[in-house]
Amino acid sequence: MARLDVTETFCQIAFPGHLHTQDSLRYASDFQFQDTDTLIVTYPKSGTTWMQEVLTLLFSRGDPTLSQTVPNWARAPWLEQYYCPEVLKASQGPRIITTHLPYHMLAPALQGSKVKVIYVARNPKDVAVSFYHFHKLAKFLPQPGSFGEFLDNFLDGTLYYGSWFDHVRGWTNQTRDNLNFFYITYEEMWQDLSGSLEKISAFLQCPLVAEKLNSIQKHCSFSNMKENAMVNYTQIPDEIMDHSKGCFMRKGIIGDWKTIFTEEQNLRFDQVFESEMGSSQLRFVWEHPEDCDPAESLARGTVMEKSILGAA
Q1: CATH superfamily of 7-300
Q2: Which of 20, 100, 135, 219 is the catalytic position?
Q3: pTM of the full structure
């Protein structure tokens, strides 16, 4: 199913038609979760692939066989993509399911469910940069134009998958009160992967000895994932993803936005962020600690701090 130039609109949000249909989006919104399911929720380019790898390795007790032989989309399928029903039919044991859908589209399906929900957020400046580069190589996404044009669309919430701000607010507002919910940031995982793995395994009630956690940490490092064909999307044909335009696993660092944002773009972004998220208790790490002026960070309220939500 190519449909590279098709856009599907569902609940006033646009999705790439290459992977989504009206039927697949309805299937997702009406989905019947099992209590043993684990749902990974992200806005695109926020650490989705990383968390898929982490959960695969946690559930396999550190054994990398599955993560090295089965593509990530087949072991942790996207709920809203057309192939998901067939993958889930063939699955055995606890299921890992992935979604980029906003909360309001899944809220009815999640009500009363004991499914474990893991939400991964990433600082939106790095999300915008990563999403911009992904648009360059993914032929099922529109051409991004200049970074300035793309950033305007990101801030306006008119890209595929909708607004980052709406997505994060929707999933983190009050959801801990009625969901089995765990929140973690990309930056927290990047700064302390070992500690993050311990928190995730505790949330999943999947305790592991130090040896197994060390194995998981090794196999889900960025360098290992970049070389893993089951993760790095090099298996996707060139007519779907133009690998000459870049790598799916690009940098994976904190603060890459500083290499492309102009001073004017950064100022506008900060203004929009304050307007959209000023009342939020969420905190984000914007820069690598070695690149960060502590006094400036403190003044801007962006000091490196752990997520205030943690596990529910």
Answers
A1: P-loop containing nucleotide triphosphate hydrolases (3.40.50.300)
A2: 100
A3: 0.89
